[in-house]
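A reminder from the course coordinator: this example appears on the midterm review sheet, so study it carefully.

Given structure:
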């Protein structure tokens, strides 16, 4: 920036310089306030997790008056699920949605949600995933150490059992069967009751059931409807076997560089978005179960059924603690303590 003082007195020249600097600093401040937050999502926008991000976007952009802009890249346009933690923590992208098991390599205790039948009903799970919970808070703190801050949790839904020719009412019904799983602890579960775990991605499970690569499987109930799995599996056994949780992350260095005002806006939007998805997940799952009933046999486990499974889970819990150490033991104790 240059100034020409010819024809101006000293006082006028100083005033002109001060005005110019003030305008320049104001422009720099405006530029510093503006921030574009790109969010990577591996699911399509029509999914409830995508719709949940739209709630966040609307609140953030309205409350910030456009100073904060949220851009959502869905359907894994930018990163696959397994790439999201590193992408966010490194700052390669500002925000990302990731399934919580993706942190299992560095924080084994995140697998608490895959220890079967630990959260037997919706209310227990909501207490565990709420802010301030003795289950959630230690996990949020551990993830923060990786360079990514958890803004809010998104429930994808609970896992059900798929099979052909009959329901999975008891552990003995899984004996000798090849079972599709989507995590190590669920593999331990299948082994503990005599089955053979087969790690299979969500997109590949339809073909695995169709070809007989596996005999049974674990998946979210919304995955049954979304992928029309009733075309290849005739029975769904409904029980809160495991919880499928996603996290919305923001790069921690970016967060620390934000103004207090913008931090407050993002926090408010995150809280509202978490409340929005928590209020809807039960309805979403109930609708998915009713849709599945039109195409397949749906069986809901009784209290007596669950009591048998509970006994069979003891070795699985012991293996979880052995793998996750003191943190895992503390989270499991806390989770069991949240039951009513």
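Designed residues:
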């Amino acid at each position: 920036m240059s100034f020409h003082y010819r024809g101006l007195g000293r006082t006028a020249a100083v005033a002109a310089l001060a005005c110019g600097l003030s305008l320049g600093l104001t422009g720099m401040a405006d530029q510093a306030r503006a921030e574009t937050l790109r969010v990577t999502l591996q699911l399509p926008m029509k999914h409830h997790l995508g719709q949940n991000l739209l709630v966040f976007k609307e609140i953030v952009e309205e409350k910030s008056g456009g100073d904060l802009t949220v851009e959502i890249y869905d359907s894994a346009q930018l990163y696959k699920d397994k790439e999201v933690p590193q992408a966010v923590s490194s700052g390669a992208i500002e925000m990302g949605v990731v399934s919580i098991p993706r942190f299992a390599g560095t924080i084994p205790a995140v697998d608490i949600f895959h220890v079967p039948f630990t959260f037997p009903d919706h209310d227990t799970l909501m207490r565990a995933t709420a802010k301030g919970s003795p289950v959630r808070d230690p996990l949020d703190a551990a993830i923060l150490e990786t360079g990514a801050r958890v803004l809010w949790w998104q429930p994808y839904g609970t896992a059900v059992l798929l099979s052909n020719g009959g329901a999975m009412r008891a552990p003995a019904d899984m004996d000798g069967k090849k079972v599709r799983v989507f995590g190590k602890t669920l593999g331990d579960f299948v082994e503990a009751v005599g089955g053979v775990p087969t790690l299979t991605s969500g997109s590949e499970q339809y073909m695995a059931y169709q070809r007989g690569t596996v005999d049974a499987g674990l998946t979210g109930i919304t995955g049954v409807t979304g992928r029309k799995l009733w075309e290849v599996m005739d029975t769904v056994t409904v029980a809160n076997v495991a919880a499928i949780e996603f996290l919305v992350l923001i790069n921690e260095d970016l967060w620390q560089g934000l103004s207090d005002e913008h931090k407050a806006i993002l926090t408010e939007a995150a809280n509202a978005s978490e409340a929005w998805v928590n209020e809807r997940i039960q309805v979403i799952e109930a609708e998915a179960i009713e849709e599945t009933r039109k195409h397949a046999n749906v069986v809901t486990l009784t209290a007596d059924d669950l009591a048998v499974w509970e006994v069979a889970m003891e070795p699985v819990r012991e293996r979880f603690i052995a793998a996750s150490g003191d943190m895992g033991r503390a989270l499991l104790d806390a989770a069991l303590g949240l039951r009513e």
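The beta strands are 35-40, 68-73, 95-99, 148-163, 178-181, 196-199, 216-220, 235-238, 243-251, 297-300. Residues 303 and 309 are 10 Å apart (CA to CA).
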